[in-house]
Amino acid sequence: KLRHNCILNYDLCKRNILNSPQCSCGKQEDAYHFFFVCKNYSIARILFMIELVNIDINLLLCGDVNLPLQINNRIFAAVHKIIDESCRLS
């Protein structure tokens, strides 16, 4: 859902599904905000960051064909873990 820009408020606002792109914290809610900035998910983010190093939004959403399958699987698992722990996308 995050890769296809269809679940966070910024994306929903662009599609005229919501009136505002704002997160409940008051900032624009896009994938970068969700994973790296939002104060609502800071505890989940800390646990998430422990799992991964040298990450960017593209790596989180798409993985990297140059990385071994095991590493991409760990990235995938970490992304799902932060999504589950944040309860934002349920």
Quick description:
The chain has 90 residues and is an all-alpha fold. The chain contains five helices and no strands.
Structure description:
With 90 residues, the protein is an all-alpha fold. Helices cover 52% and strands 0% of the residues. The protein has five helices and no strands. α3 runs antiparallel to α5. The N and C termini lie close together (11 Å).
Could you list the spans in which at least 5 consecutive residues all have pLDDT below 50? none
Rg: 13 Å
Q: Helix and strand string, N-terminal first? A: HHHHH
- What fraction strand? under 5%
Averaged pLDDT? 83
User: How would you describe the shape?
Assistant: globular
N-end to C-end Cα span: 11 Å
Summarize the biggest pleated sheet: none
Properties at a glance:
5 helices; 0% strand; 90 residues; mainly alpha
Topology record:
Layout: H1 9-14, H2 31-37, H3 42-51, H4 57-62, H5 69-86
Helix pairs in contact: 3-5
